Amino acid sequence: MDAIRLCNRFFEEEKLGQFKEKLKVKHLYGLRREELADWLKTELNEPSYRATQLFEWMYQKRVTKFKDMTNLPKHLRTKLEESAVLDTSAERLRQTSKDGTVKFLLGWSDAVTAETVLMRHDYGNSVCVSSQIGCKMGCNFCASTLGGMIRQVSAGEMVEQLLHSQKLLDREGGRVSSIVMMGSGEPMDNLDEVFRFMDIVHDEKGLNIGFRHITISTVGIVPGIKRLADDGRPVTLAVSLHAVTDEKRSSMMPVNKAYPIAKLLDACHYYVEHTGKRISFEYALIGGENDSLQDARNLANLLKEIPNHINLIPVNYVPERDYTRTPEEQVEAFVKELQRLGMNATVRREKGHDISAACGQLRAEHEKQGVEN
Q: Annotated catalytic sites, by residue?
């Protein structure tokens, strides 16, 4: 028996050692170019200019195997194969909508999954990126919060989401022109990794996507909004508002108890003053909850002092949630009332309605099927 225990212990320790060794492997998609240059110099004793060559292979040529990076010396390619990794995700599921929207469910080695969505518009291709696996914000009309928060998504994993769509577009001669951080999770709750992700994809030797073509959405994390205002990257801020009174908003979005509307609007004023940019306010229209004409008037009054655009979003049906969509005629009346009051308001053009393209829906359905099977 002691011998069996000893063998088992040895086996477990060996597996642990292998796991620790794997942890030393560097995920290169998660490094800014200057960080990659530093890693190459300090860990592999290679000149810094190799980072630019690697970036071009990784992001412009979209090559994922080091052995195929032919202008790198063979000894470096060997070292990279031993000490680094690129694509760590696998596509678990793909759905394509009649309107051309494509939703991917990507999985990683720790058995978690995240969604990313490619949306095609007349003005270009946009990708919706998830910043967390699940979400702890608890908004009670959203599918992303159903399983709670599992873990953060790293910058490298965000890059992988983006590249997944870009590789599909490569076959069509297209490119990703904009990014919206509106997938699963709260970007302000993972802001360091979001900043790193933005720097990587903004790099001129990378995907060269301008900061002005990146939108960060938040449920209203006040410190995050102020940090974004002070940061200097000229991204677009989108604030999920969804209600005009603290009582109603707290019932829908628990975060409002920590950051009530007055504090949230103070942070929005701070953002506008420091960036000179207007804010997009997201307002999910929920049947019988926040979609009356009086709600429209209250919304206009609440936001009239802040340069803004109001983005109206008829709520998506989620089986586990007790909400209904606002009827089409009521949506039209709501937006017209806002416009009559001088507000810049539009209804978001829905994408992928036939494939559960709202954040969290595909993952929730996939996990539910897994349990049932």
A: 115, 359
